[in-house]
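Design request, tokens follow.
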């Protein structure tokens, strides 16, 4: 019997090399298949949903962008969303069909959404502008920083979901209840925070069931909901400033000019100029004195000389002398030059890990947060000398990934 010799290693190495090559080829094929399955659709003019090539069932690997001032309409087939849909500022999505946002779907509205049927939210709806719908059912997550308008006589049904964002919901009927099938913020209750509710006649909406405004805003027990002091009603918070224009434009690198015009003002103390990197978390960067009382057009201007993020969002917070406040629409400004880092995060949705790729070898710190801003980076694990991040310790849901001043959304299965 011949004793093993170190040279035997060389006998097995060719087979090991062949096996490694096969494994690499298999991994490359899997990556190619994933890339092929992920589809990005972009509008190319004012056209119908079908003419744009958009699917009626938006899968988890699909992304739809409506941009460049385009107007897309759908009057034929209901839309089911499990992927990502985004309407950019100055663009429109209109129609007479129902839109269902499934639990792993995400819809961001920075333009105008106008549908004469139901919007049903099981996933994540970010409304940063105007949304006109027939009725609204939510057992998902709504961040409404502007205005959602329901048809007269219709109902906003918050069924164990969350609505926040300091915007306004115009509805004649409110129904809020718990849902054992939903677990946002650790419980099954319908959660409302920082919202103003109005009826279509600018009064207080009625409540479905044996509930009242007082019960809703004080102890919440009668409606199986959680509320805080930032929930208000139009009868007590009608705002006296008519804002007819708000614009934000980059005039040179790192400098943004903000202009806005009011048609009338009553007891208007000031405007707070607020800036955000992701459209969700806001910082006040300036205070501009209001006119108090006015019945003529007044123009305001503010210069931001510190634009640093690749994409910045701006809004105004108008405050009365008595402390009541309201928010303007949101304006987005692209601030990057040609040196912008291009970042791709995949897979999305993800199971146990994600990969962050960029055109810069030094990606720098990568931060993982909840949509409410809680930093969960310490619950993840970034592999040594790589941009692969283990997210297996995170619960199922939507998360924010911050890379080089840019914010991306991922869904953990």
């Amino acid at each position: 019997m011949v004793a093993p010799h170190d040279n035997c290693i060389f006998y097995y190495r060719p087979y090991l090399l062949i096996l490694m090559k096969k494994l690499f080829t298999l991994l490359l094929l899997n990556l190619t298949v994933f890339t092929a399955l992920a589809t990005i659709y972009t509008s190319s003019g004012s056209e119908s949903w079908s003419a744009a090539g958009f699917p009626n069932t938006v899968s988890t690997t699909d992304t739809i962008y409506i941009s460049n001032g385009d107007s897309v309409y759908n009057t034929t087939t209901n839309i089911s969303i499990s992927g990502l849909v985004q309407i950019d500022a100055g663009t429109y999505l209109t129609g007479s069909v129902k839109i269902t946002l499934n639990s792993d779907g995400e819809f961001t509205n920075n333009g105008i959404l106008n549908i004469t049927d139901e919007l049903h939210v099981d996933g994540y709806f970010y409304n940063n502008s105007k949304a006109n719908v027939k009725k609204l059912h939510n057992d998902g997550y709504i961040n409404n920083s502007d205005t959602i308008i329901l048809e007269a006589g219709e109902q906003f049904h918050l069924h164990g979901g969350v609505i926040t964002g300091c915007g306004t919901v115009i509805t004649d009927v409110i129904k809020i209840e718990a849902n054992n099938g939903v677990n946002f913020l650790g419980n099954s209750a319908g959660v409302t925070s920082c919202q103003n509710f109005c009826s279509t006649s600018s009064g207080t909406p009625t409540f479905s069931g044996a509930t009242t405004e007082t019960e809703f805003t004080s102890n919440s027990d009668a409606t199986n909901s959680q509320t805080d002091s930032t929930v208000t009603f139009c009868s007590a918070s009608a705002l006296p400033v008519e804002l007819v224009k708000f614009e934000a434009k980059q005039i040179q690198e790192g400098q943004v000019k903000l202009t806005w015009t009011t048609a009338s003002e009553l007891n208007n103390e000031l405007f707070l100029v607020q800036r955000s990197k992701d459209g969700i978390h806001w910082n006040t960067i300036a205070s501009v004195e209001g006119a108090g009382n006015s019945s003529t057009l007044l123009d305001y201007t503010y210069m931001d000389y510190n634009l640093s993020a690749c994409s910045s969002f701006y809004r105004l917070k108008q405050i009365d002398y008595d402390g009541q406040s309201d928010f303007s629409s949101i304006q987005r400004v692209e601030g990057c030059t040609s040196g912008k880092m291009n970042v791709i995060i995949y897979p999305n949705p993800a199971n146990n890990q994600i990969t962050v790729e960029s055109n810069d070898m030094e990606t720098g710190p990568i931060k993982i947060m909840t949509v409410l801003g809680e930093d969960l980076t310490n619950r993840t694990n970034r592999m040594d000398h790589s941009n692969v991040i283990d997210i297996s310790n995170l619960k199922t849901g939507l998360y924010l990934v911050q890379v080089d001043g840019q914010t991306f959304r991922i869904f953990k299965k």
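Comment from the thread starter after seeing the answer: thanks! Residues 1-12, 235-239 have pLDDT under 50 and may be disordered.
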